[in-house]
UniProtKB/TrEMBL annotation:
Gene3D superfamilies: Winged helix-like DNA-binding domain superfamily/Winged helix DNA-binding domain. Residues 64-125 form the HTH marR-type domain. This is HTH marR-type domain-containing protein. InterPro entries: HTH_MarR-typ (IPR000835), WH-like_DNA-bd_sf (IPR036388), WH_DNA-bd_sf (IPR036390). It comes from Pelagerythrobacter marinus.
Length: 168
């Protein structure tokens, strides 16, 4: 597979739209600011997001919800994959009112877990991402969950299948 020279493409190709330029820049910079993570941790974060989205299947909707977790995991997974997340996307992902979502985003910003930046191409939109402190927090949490899972299963690797043990 031929490697694409993104810098050259961004500089010289006038047919590339500003949105495509930003997307290429975002994807090419994914993971450069921070060391890459173990793929198992990213998969664990995705599994946690999926499980959190299904809580309403087991208990009344909104009884056990803390949307801050949904926001943090959404930002973590998207950040590791080089995605761009807007405030509106976070509001939709945590399935609450816009006012409640903004209150949570404000609290997470005050705690230095996320940062907001105005979109250079559309000043009406705000891009949200984890701060280095927020990323370290989520990584530490995932590593702790992975270690506990490893201890309980007796297998190396946090996502190793567990052997079947009949009850009783």
């Amino acid at each position: 597979m031929a490697e694409i020279d993104i810098k050259s493409t961004l500089r010289h190709d006038v047919s590339v739209s500003p949105t495509a330029r930003r997307t290429l820049r975002s994807l090419s910079g994914a993971g450069r600011e921070q060391p890459p993570i173990d793929g198992e941790l990213l998969e664990l974060a995705r599994r946690i997001m999926k499980a959190r989205s299904r809580i309403g299947d087991f208990v009344p909707h909104n009884l056990l919800k803390d949307w801050a977790w949904d926001i943090l995991f959404e930002l973590f997974v998207n950040g590791e994959e080089g995605g761009i997340v807007y405030v509106k996307h976070l509001m939709l992902s945590c399935n609450t009112t816009p006012t409640s979502a903004m209150r949570i985003i404000d609290r997470l910003d005050d705690a230095n877990l996320l940062r907001r930046e105005v979109d250079e191409l559309d000043h009406r939109r705000v891009i949200v991402s984890l701060t280095p402190h927020g990323r370290k927090f989520i990584l530490a949490l995932l590593e702790t969950i992975g270690e506990r899972d490893e201890e309980e299963s007796g297998h190396r690797g946090s996502l190793a299948p567990r052997p079947y043990r009949p009850r009783g």
